[in-house]
Amino acid sequence: MDLFSSYLLYLMLFSISLPVVFLITYRHKSSNPNLPPGKMGWPIIGETLDFALACQGGNPGRFVNDRMNKYSPQVFKTSLLEANMVVMCGGSGNKFLFSNEDKLVVSWWQRSMKKILCFPSVFNETLTKISSDPPTFLPEFLKPEALQHYIATMDSMASKHIELNWSPNREVTVFPLAKKYSFALAFRLFMSIVDPEYVEMISHRFQILNEGFLSVPIDIPGTTFNRALKASKFIHNELLAIIRKRKMELEQKGDSATRDLLSHMLLASDENCNVKSEMEISTQLICLLFAIHHTTSSVITFILKYLAEFPDVYSKVLKEQMEIAKSKGPAEFLKRDDIQKMKYTWNVANETMRLTPPVQGTFREAITDFTYAGFTIPKGWKMHWNVNTTHRDPKYFPDPEKFDPSRFEGKGPQPFTFVPFGGGPRMCPGREYARAQVLAFIHNVVTRFKWEKVDPSEKVAYNPSPIPSKGFPIRLQPLQNGFI
Ligand code: HEM
Ligand SMILES: *[C@@H]1O[C@H](CO)[C@@H](O)[C@H](O)[C@H]1NC(C)=O
Ligand SMILES: *[C@@H]1O[C@H](CO)[C@@H](O)[C@H](O)[C@H]1NC(C)=O
Ligand SMILES: *[C@@H]1O[C@H](CO)[C@@H](O)[C@H](O)[C@H]1NC(C)=O
């Protein structure tokens, strides 16, 4: 409801300036005769309200889908998040955006997001540096070679989390617990922080921050946006304190100080030998934690949901995971090789991300005028790609509503049609981390339990990642050596 009420407030505030805006919109329209089809909706807010309502109705893809049917299956114009926007659809739309990064388009984040995350400092360096190399510390820390050192930690933390929070209970609610695990893991791997209460407290602030993203950027007490800004400031101050403490430790202990992402960031210098400022590091950490906050936990939750719905899929996953479990000693943790062996389980994860992708799509901005599908896209206009324009299209995925992990066997989907992590140079740098984390968790759950849904009619809500509306409560049945 919060999202909705802030839009109403927004509408009321801006209705005062309607006549002026109409004039501006009118002039703009007449000077660009060859824009894609579509309608711009209300002044300033455009069709954002319809978009928000579609999200609240549990069907964000509907907004895009209705307009594809009405105007064009390739491209249409609208106005979203205070910007002139073109939605590029289908495999060819994705291909165009992902292969023209830094040539015709660059990443774009809406104003409220920039303000909450304290932009431009963080993405500034990556966005303005027109080149395909992403920030140097990220690939270093997130690439498979570095990740292999963390897989044992992912496994041991999943195991501990389940013993503490799942084993003594017959009934658990999956989403909040998956989030607790994801966040605890990130704090441990990035900053070596292990106090669960502290992590929980910061995680709660991220929840507030997250709600601010699709909100209208009106900064007055009581608005969602205002609360998000306050939460962001709070998190920054906490992180700055952590950063300063570590800086002192590094100065005093040198090589024997803690080694993790934070130390790496503090020690790393960029090409011009500038050590990153404390504020930069804090913002980069916030962006990373934000990218993790909902995504991996949403995937874990929906995998468990599909496994409850499809016993044959569950059996195959169990078989694969038991084979891996049996090949290991009692106190031996998962390694990179084991993750590679989880092929079927990863296909299940892919099929889960096809039907309930954690990220619905992102935005780009045109850095020059160009033509697409015969239409002019003017410089400065924003573009949106959306997972649903391909993930549920029968042309790419026959019988699209059916959950069928075997789609990912063999050659798998056509390029640019399965895009849960985006594509091109800006494709999610955390995808290997996400894969290892999700698989380590599923390994630990599946080898211990079978489960069933508590509420078979539970709906899915979007905020904007999909989440079962009650957090997905399940009843657990413990397994003994892989059997009930
Ligand atoms: C299943 C989980 C995840 C999904 C589905 C996901 C999806 C995405 C998508 C769609 C984008 C935008 C790509 C684009 O605009 O083309 C993105 C960006 C990003 N993701 Fe992820 N992500 C996940 C997990 C993670 C994790 C675990 C991390 C960090 C460890 C991470 C870090 C980032 C960062 C830093 C960006 C911004 C990259 C840039 O703009 O250069 N993500 N992610
Ligand atoms: C996604 O697209 C399909 C067809 O392409 C449509 O039927 C569906 O309503 C859309 N929305 C969602 C959330 O799947
Ligand atoms: C962001 O980049 C622009 C252009 O390179 C620069 O002028 C500005 O100072 C940068 N902002 C911050 C906070 O680094
Ligand atoms: C599963 O998804 C990942 C990430 O998008 C992709 O790289 C991989 O090729 C997919 N697996 C198959 C078998 O298509």
From TrEMBL:
Name of the molecule in the record: Beta-amyrin 28-monooxygenase
GO cellular component: membrane
Compartments where located: Membrane
Record-linked SUPFAM superfamilies: Cytochrome P450
Iron among keywords: yes
Gene Ontology molecular function: any one: iron ion binding
Species of origin: Vitis rotundifolia
Superkingdom as given in the UniProt entry: Eukaryota
Sequence intervals crossing the membrane: 7-26
Residue positions binding heme: 428
Pfam family, one: p450
Reactions listed under catalytic activity: beta-amyrin + 3 reduced [NADPH--hemoprotein reductase] + 3 O2 = oleanolate + 3 oxidized [NADPH--hemoprotein reductase] + 4 H2O + 4 H(+)
Main localization of the protein described in the UniProt heading: membrane
Membrane topology: Single-pass membrane protein
Sorted UniProt keywords: Heme, Iron, Membrane, Metal-binding, Monooxygenase, Oxidoreductase, Transmembrane, Transmembrane helix
Membership in a protein family: Belongs to the cytochrome P450 family.
Required cofactor(s): heme
Gene Ontology terms: biological process: sterol metabolic process
